Amino acid sequence: MTSNPAVRPEIIDFYTRSDEAARLQTTATGTLEFARTRELLRHHLPPAPARVLDVGGGPGTHARWLADDGYTVHVVDPVPKHVTHAAAIDGVTAELGDARRLTAADRTYDVVLLLGPLYHLHDKTDRISALTEASRVARPGGVIAAAAISRYSPLLDYIATTGITESAIQDGVRDTLAQGRYAGQRGFTVAYFQTSTELRAEVTEAGLTDPRLYGIEGPGWVAVKAIEKYTSANLMGTDIYETALTAARIAEPHAALTDASATFSPSPGPDRV
């Protein structure tokens, strides 16, 4: 394949300084994302010991439970700290790499996960490259699962945590809603936020058939995040958390609610979706 541009340095710097593993373990919204992602994957993955390539797998948060479930897991990530952490997990191997240019041979993995890369690729051609590479290394009939961040999540997040009465915040939210691009000005790094319609179109353009999209956190994540923000309460394991989890499951078959999630994913299926 032709050479691809390097991963943007501000993305590497952000994840080097932050604790990605803690994000999915220490707050109710993070735990909601983690639990729902695991739930959806377990529903669709082939039986262990299938081979899983976790592209953009970070410090191995999902690789850990996959290995515990008996899968053979290899993590690819562009952040050296993440690779070191993932490689230390029993049953997991890891390498530095780029989703747009994988080192794996053709048709060598039963499952390919793209739960991290797409929302850090501003250019459509890069996102298509990542999806095409996932398809290349997946075996016929294998599973490909990719995640994106909802175009509407910044607006909902500001409602939950900060407010949007300031004109500068309003301008930034309007720009993200219109363009999808996020400059990393508040609590995150540069990113690209998608609508479910756009993600479905790009997955299809990359040659993956009949994608089905599921909202991960469901519409209740906004309430959970707002309560945690303004009360400093830890809602993990509470009735409010269980309500949000139940709401995500109920909303699952309803396409109109998909974009209300903070993130969503094409469901993995037998046709390498």
Radius of gyration: 18 Å
Largest sheet: 5 strands, parallel
The parts where pLDDT drops under 50 for at least 5 residues are 267-273
Mean pLDDT: 92
| Widest sheet, order of strands | 3-2-1-4-5
The beta-strand count equals 10
Gross morphology: globular
In sequence order, what are the helices and strands, one letter per element?
Answer: HHHEHEHEEHEEHHEEHEHHE
Alpha plus pi helix count: 11
What amount of the residues lies in strands?
15-25%
Instruction: Decide which structural class fits the backbone.
Output: alpha/beta
Helix coverage percent:
40-55%
Please give the alpha-carbon distance between the first and last residues. Answer: 22 Å
How does this model look, in words?
With 273 residues, this protein is an alpha/beta fold. It is 42% helix and 17% strand. The chain is built from eleven helices and ten strands. The longest helix has 17 residues, at 28-44. It is globular. The two termini are 22 Å apart. The model is unreliable at 267-273 (pLDDT under 50).
Fold topology:
Layout: H1 9-17, H2 20-23, H3 28-44, E1 51-55, H4 61-68, E2 72-77, H5 80-87, E3 92-96, E4 109-114, H6 124-137, E5 138-146, E6 148-149, H7 153-161, H8 167-179, E7 181-182, E8 191-192, H9 196-205, E9 212-215, H10 221-231, H11 239-251, E10 263-267
Parallel strand pairs: 1-2, 1-4, 2-3, 4-5
Antiparallel strand pairs: 6-10, 7-8, 9-10
Helix pairs in contact: 3-11, 7-10
